[in-house]
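Consider the following assembly input.
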Amino acid sequence: MLIALLTDIHGNREALSACLAHARLLHVDRLIFLGDYVGYGADPAWVVDTVRGLVDQGAVALLGNHDAAIDGSDEDMNSVAQEAIRWTRNQLGMEQRRFLADLPLTHEEGSVLYVHANGYAPRSWDYMAGPMEAIRHFSRVDAHITFCGHVHVPMLYHMSTTAKVGTFSPVANNDIPLLPTRTWLAVIGAVGQPRDGVAAANYAVFDTARQTLRYLRVPYDTATAARKVRQAGLPEKLALRLEQGR
Amino acid sequence: MRWRLHPGQVIDGFTLQENLGTGGMAQLWAVTREDDPAPLIMKVPMLIDSDDPLPIVCFETEQMIMPRLTGPHVPRFVATGPLDPMPYIVMERISGPSLKARLDRVPLPWPEVVAIGATVAHALHDLHLQHVIHLDIKPSNVMLRETGEAVLIDYGFARHERLPDLLAEEFREPFGTTPYMAPEQVLQDRADPRSDLFALGVMLYFFVTGERPFGNPRGGQIRRRLWRDPVPPRALNPDCPPWLQEIILRCLEVDPDERYATAAQLALDLENPDHVRLTERAGRLERDSGVKTFRRWLKARRAQPLEAPNIAGQLSRAPIVLVAIDLAPGSEDLAEAQRLMVGRILSIEGEARIACVNVLKTSRIAVDILEDEEGRSLHVQRLVQLRHWGGSLQIPSDRITYSVLEAPDPAAALVDYVRHNNVDHVVIGARSSSALRRYLGSVSSRVVAEAPCSVTVVRTPKDRRAEDGGAASA
């Protein structure tokens, strides 16, 4: 079975549409969303409705920190994120807000864990920003494979039988075997706000039969997405980020 | 933990037949599978001592890389088993012997050494094109198929450009087989495909002299190869021709930039001795002086490992470009247009090697037409013209070669040359007007259709204009 992993869409309709179309071409069987449907981008309502529709058809959607901040506190956020969240609150209706509030923090299938930020304290929103954070995750989480987002930049951590942790920066369109002899922490890059200097959407496909992971990059209409951000009166920085991918 | 295996045991549908040997890292079993007549081999890693993770990391590395490899130069991958119940890899069993068998007979006659070298170089190039550096090339890891191709086995130390390097993550020490390790491998640089060319150079040296160029060092002694050059092969075996010494010593250069840029370029030299440009290396009969060695020692002390691997990049910087040149009178404009095109390619692909080829068409029936004096002089005349054409390109003479092929079918001869020499890019001219048009056009269009590489078809500005005029008047 092919599972598409999509995370950090952040209200970017153009990027999500491009990734969903791409996943259809790959004949993906299932969709798992790792959170952060809103914040930053100009189309939060459309993104929430789209994801909700897909969940009705069997997709899994998890809670991200921006989603939690809609009905919760935005105190921990930086000023740009805060401004975007406050704008987003006014864009969402009751049903959309309830959908977000009811999302689960984690999802498990066998020895595979899906979560937005990290496996050991999902609601802390700690970032898996480097090998030290990965070690903390590996030491506290039993799952053989963990998929998360939140960092926006794709990265693959793995731990050997002797507890050595390796860091691998994946190239797109390449099947990486997630060997049974190791434990794996796969950080999936952002759909809606890439930050590694490449202005193309990220997502990944996990092949459960072959136990391989393929990171993907999907070019999308960044000009339109950025224009909408400006038209909405959101901070200019958020439009530039989409254009530059950083 | 050691797996207690016995003949007749069935693991995931594979029946164990015979234990083919137990090494430090793995057991090898001949296995069969129902309804599968192919001879198969099962490799089971040794996990005896859990304090030493090397066998398991090497096994994981092979498990990652082997399923991705294809072609005649690697064992066909069949299946792999997870840890539970038992880790294993099943692959094609190569029936031929490994090159280790030849070590009993060293020194080998030099033509045999050259043939081995070319065969292994072709296999290495095919592996490098698949983004993999072997990093443990040695006689016991090279098998020969009955059809003659070399098969490279054992990917426990290998590096795939697009997969995590588990060995580098786990350990902080150099890996490989010490007599064959390239200097950069000693420095824990696992990123350069030219490390495999060094190891092949060690093999060829061993085969032609009967001695290992750097002995069989242990511990800190491995670093000596960063400054101490080997005794020139001809000092040990005067039968070794100077051009072969040139090739071997070039493979053994400390700085990868001084070696061949690609295995394909090495194969080209091994198969075309008259193309080898002889340098001071060819005539050397003694090792370098103390002063030179001391300077290298000083440099080696500061040596640092390189950055991330760029196998594809190394190969694409150093393509083999075939320029098929028509030397018939009246084709000067076309030859000039091709020269401009090749100049452009050289400005981008800095380490490209240019093979200038002209085909001397022979009659299918009167095969001996070129054996008379007139024929021979025609061949020489074509070669002179080719050299004249290439002389104006700004390229070192060791990166350009000239060949006149004699064949009844020019297109087929060019395509054969492309296939055999791993040519990456063909530059061929096509004339769009003249009485010869249909005939010459068919050569370029057949090369476009049949060559397994990129082909650039060059036309002259004059022909383009003539074509436009023709279209307007039609």
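Chain A has eight helices and twelve strands. Ask yourself how this observation constrains the way the partners meet.
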